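Lab notebook page, bench 4
Experiment: in silico fold of construct C2
Operator: M.H.
Input chain length: 127 residues
Purpose: comparison with the prior construct
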Amino acid sequence: MIGKPILVVDDEPIVRESIRDWLIDAGYKVATAETGEEALEMVQRQAFAIMIIDVRLPGKTGISVLKELKTLKTQIKSIVITAYPSAGLSAEAKELGAVDYLIKPIVPDDLERLIRDTLLHFETQGG
């Protein structure tokens, strides 16, 4: 389970690098992207188990990326993060397949637990 590749997508370097470092320290393989477009390119080139994606990104938003992922039929599981929570956005993200919606600032232990639970759930479901 640990070691599964994770993609972190956030336009704020401090957030992106902090999450990357936490996950690397926890034993995961981590790649990062700064934009939605970059994330979509990476997902098409490499299989990721989980994508952690910010809602507000320059260019394609996190929600736009989730919509495009549905058309790509990828097996990636998404966790949406935002500093601007909204019930509507949370519902839309989950409708588009996001496993959860976390509000910044992210608590490393909570994120790691969510990743572990998500990977475990989908491994036991054969996904």
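Observations: The radius of gyration is 13 Å. The chain has a mean pLDDT of 93.
Next step: discuss at group meeting.
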